[in-house]
Amino acid sequence: MRLEPVADAGWARTLGLPAVALGGTVLIAMALSLVAGSNPFAVLGLIVKGAVGSKFALLETLNRATPLIFTGLAVAVAFRAKLWNIGAEAQLYMGALLVVVLGTGLLPLPSALLIPILMGTAIVGGAMLLLGPAWLKTRLGVDEVVTTLLLNFVMILFVSLLLEGPMKDPMGMGWPKSERLLAEARLPRIVDGLRLHWGFGLALICALLVWVMQTRTTLGYEIRAVGLNRRAASFAGIPVTGVVIKTALISGGLAGLAGFSEVAGLKGSLTLDLSPGFGYTGIIVAMLALLNPLGVVVSALFVAGIFVGADSMSRAAAVPTYIADILLASALLLMVLAIMLTRFRVVRG
Amino acid sequence: MEILDILLSASFWAAAVRIASPLIFATLGELICERAGVLNLGIEGIMVVGAFAGWMAVYSGADLWTGVAVAMGAGMLFGLLHAILSVPFGLSQHVVGLGITLLATASTYFAYRVSLPEVTNPPRIEAFKELPIPIVSDIPIVGPALFAQTPLTYLAFVAAAVVAFVLYRTPLGLALRAVGENPHSVEAQGLSVTGLRMGAVIVGSGLMAVGGAFLTMSAFNSFFFEMVNGRGWICIALVVFGAWKPGKAVLGALLFAAFDALQIRLQQTSLGADIPYQIFLMMPYLLSILALVVMSRRAEVPAALMVPFNRGER
Fold it and tell me: What would you measure as the largest C-alpha separation in chain B, in angstroms?
């Protein structure tokens, strides 16, 4: 078989194939439910109900989507330049760690000063953590996939070390948990009485800013050029190394913000289960959004809905909650295949 | 000096070879894929699948070697999926690989929960036992390290020899190496680039799964979540460290495993009492990063690594 570019894809092809991919994901969900011995339609219903079926469910989905928007943006920005940042998980923890270091009493400041400082520190922390791999990549040609991946393991051990040692909360009943943030360091809720914090608003603002950066600025143009063809970009006079480093700083900073938002907006303290893999899931979020920053918001909501829905469903039906990860992986693989097939057709010979 | 005592003990070297065994399988698997031009980031998930499939097969009553075969088969299945998406369809190898890792890991956990719903402590199996080779296993230090291991460890070294032989001494190996360097030349010979690459990914994934199975069938005798714990990613670093050559990759795995065995033992010394255990646990990952940095200048990357091939396209 051979792939041949499709000159004019047409609406049926551009919309139909992704729809087939989504349909395939639903079929996989139903098959898995049958394997687990449950009624597939009941399981689908429970997932949808658990994700958006009530005010509580909806807020839970929005809360879960918040860190995914940040990590999804972090990945989308980096992948656009073909900088394979698989380390958003570590960068998230770095951001969260610095927020807890500064926000638990070291800086007794009013909210109006403290929150911007904590935000800035989280951004810098995340950015610095990706700067190392980016520098190794541009200077020595060290593959950033492996370095960023391995740093995730190092970082979580480092957090564990601090939480069991110098940063352990003496009132934590022996759990590895940091002290709580000062009240002034906490992000307020968007609407009083509703469990949704301003981290979500910040995530939306970031998505908009990244979109503006990508479509309306020189840097955005340069990032795209570097991603499409590094050599050609260099030939055209674009400072490739500088662009890659700038991309890394933006990407790491966004992932650091995810840590800030989770600690200051939701949890109030740092534990080892702050992120159940938000950094890795960000890759799926970004890919499903085709690396479009505004699409990231939509796909983060979709992905969060699947997680929240599956959690709620697995409490009612005998289908393990891991079904969520299987569905997302399937959706990812089917979707990249579908998108490719909108642009190429398979021919024999 | 405590370190010296450790380095001179037979049990240390035996442990190093044991720790290296799963890494050798998986590193060889990744090496085959990359030599053919495909980066297989599914490795971490495929190792999880292998660990579970082999263990589950034995737990359900199969004998140990059948378990290894089941693990290998399961790995090859995910390898096939990776191969289809990344070779003929030419999708981004990064995305496909990470997707496969997530799919394989989640499917494994799902299967575990469905097959053992009420279990809190995973059951243990009767795993591979040490099989000392007469006479040579009595040699001090070298004997226990190399010749008093489980059959799977011997298999790891046999696999390395076979991979090296096939890669450098057979027409198939020549074609495989060529397809990772210059696929057009292979096509000009009338060989199928797609077939060679897909075959490499499938066989390589099978080896990765056996590496995973080593953990449940020859080391921990049971299956735990997150037991692979980044070993797959470390193997990708080992391929680079080994400069894409099987012999060097095996040496790299042994060296790495020796450091790992050393940090485990150092935790029990007076040094371990002063230094938090997390520092020791970070060592393997930091060491892998260091290895990548050190080797980066010298590495001869297969020229067509991560470059999809589409017939008739230049």
Answer: 65
Dihedral in degrees, nearest 10, Cα atoms B209, B212, B214, B215? -170
Which residue out of B187, B289, B296, B300 would a mutagenesis test of the A interface target, given it has the greatest number of A Cβ atoms within 10 Å?
B289
- Nearest Cα of chain B lies from the Cα of A87 at a distance, in angstroms, of 13
The H-or-E segment that residue B63 falls in is none
Position B237 in a domain: yes
CATH assignment at residue B231: 1.10.3470
- Note down the domain range covering B28: 2-116+153-295
Tokens 């049958």, residue located = A34
Instruction: Specify whether the CB–CB gap between B20 and B256 falls below 8 A.
Output: yes
The ipTM of this complex is 0.93
Q: Supply φ then ψ for residue A325, to 5 degrees.
A: -65, -40
- Where does the pLDDT of residue A349 fall: very low under 50, low under 70, confident under 90, or very high at 90 and above? low
List, for residues B187-207, the tens digit of each pLDDT value.
Answer: 999 999 999 999 999 999 999
Give the count of domains, chain B. 1
Cα–Cα distance measured from residue B94 to residue A339, given in angstroms and rounded to the nearest whole number: 16
Spans of all domains in chain A: 66-296
Q: Residue A253 contacts by C-beta under 8 Å, 6 or more apart in sequence? A: A74, A123, A124, A126, A127
Q: How far apart are CA B5 and CA B1, in angstroms?
A: 7
